[in-house]
């Protein structure tokens, strides 16, 4: 972060406001703190609304007598999560400031149930900051998953790839600066010059989302199979959410992050196995891909 950004955050953290609205003590400690992610990125909480009690309050309004058998807030939240009730979780919202590489942002923005305002390279000049992976994070294409990584690159190949990433990013930015410069020339418009920038350059945005849709984002992006570069952002957000709504996060961790979903065919196969039958991929009625995923669930 720049000295100016750090000073702005320190000034914001130094302020305190009296309020009658509910606050979450755990979240208050996170407000305006920037948590580093990757080599130049970060997340920080700008604002939030609601807490665990906002979820249960909304649920009791919505479902009335049907929730009276659940005697406490934690139990009710677990019931709501277990039975896929979504609207009570929408009563909580969070607004984050995120700095991230453009290629991660393009993956992130596929989650369309949020409000986003991104730094504009039409009006402003992007900083000379690029994401360069650590050598340990360079990997070959997976041979079993078209979306994943395989074995790590090593030796001369890894060094060559890192050199190309640094050199190409630097060269593209040099040309970007040269194109927009008005020193002895008209200078190309910023909105056109930005097309030459690489996908590993950093951008920033404000991202506001309700808790229900945030949990959906985290379920996919904090998963071990998610791309590492977006997973580390999701994990940083998880640490914040855990302090903000501890009951809701514990239920989410139990039923979503740590839980599994089986198809009707998978349930049938599991019952056959528990009954002592030897079930194979051929007798399961599943495709090879389905069987591999099913066995991954069974064997852990």
UniProtKB/TrEMBL annotation:
It is an enzyme of class 2 (transferase). This is Flavin-dependent thymidylate synthase. Residues 1-23 are annotated as: Disordered. It comes from Jannaschia seohaensis. Its EC number is 2.1.1.148. FAD binds at residues 87, 110-112, 118, 210-212, 216. It catalyses: dUMP + (6R)-5,10-methylene-5,6,7,8-tetrahydrofolate + NADPH + H(+) = dTMP + (6S)-5,6,7,8-tetrahydrofolate + NADP(+). DUMP binds at residues 107-110, 118-122, 194, 221. Pfam families: Thy1.
């Amino acid at each position: 972060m720049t000295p100016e950004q750090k000073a702005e955050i320190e000034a914001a953290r130094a302020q305190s406001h009296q309020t009658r609205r509910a606050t979450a003590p755990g979240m208050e400690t996170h407000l305006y703190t920037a948590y580093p992610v990757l080599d130049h990125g970060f997340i920080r909480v700008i604002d939030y609304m609601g807490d665990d009690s906002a979820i249960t309050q909304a649920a009791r309004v919505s479902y009335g007598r049907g929730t009276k058998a659940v005697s406490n807030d934690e139990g009710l939240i677990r019931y709501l999560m277990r039975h896929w009730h979504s609207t009570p979780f929408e009563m909580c919202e969070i607004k984050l400031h995120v700095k991230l590489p453009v290629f991660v942002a393009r993956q992130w923005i596929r989650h369309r149930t949020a409000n986003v305002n991104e730094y504009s390279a039409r009006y402003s000049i992007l900083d000379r900051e690029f994401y360069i992976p650590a050598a340990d994070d360079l990997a070959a294409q997976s041979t079993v998953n078209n979306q994943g990584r395989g074995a790590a690159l090593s030796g001369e190949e890894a060094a060559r790839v890192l050199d190309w990433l640094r050199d190409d990013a630097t060269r593209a930015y040099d040309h970007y600066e040269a194109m927009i410069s008005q020193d002895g020339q008209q200078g190309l418009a910023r909105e056109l010059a930005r097309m030459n920038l690489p996908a590993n350059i950093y951008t920033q945005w404000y991202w506001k989302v309700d808790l229900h849709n945030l949990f959906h984002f985290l379920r996919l992006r904090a998963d071990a199979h998610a791309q590492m570069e977006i997973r580390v952002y999701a994990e940083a957000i998880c640490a914040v959410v855990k302090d903000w709504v501890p009951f809701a996060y514990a239920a989410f961790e139990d039923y979503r992050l740590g839980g599994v979903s089986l198809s009707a065919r998978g349930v049938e196969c599991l019952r056959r196995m528990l009954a002592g039958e030897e079930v194979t991929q051929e007798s399961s009625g599943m495709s090879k891909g389905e069987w591999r995923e099913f066995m991954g669930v069974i064997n852990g």
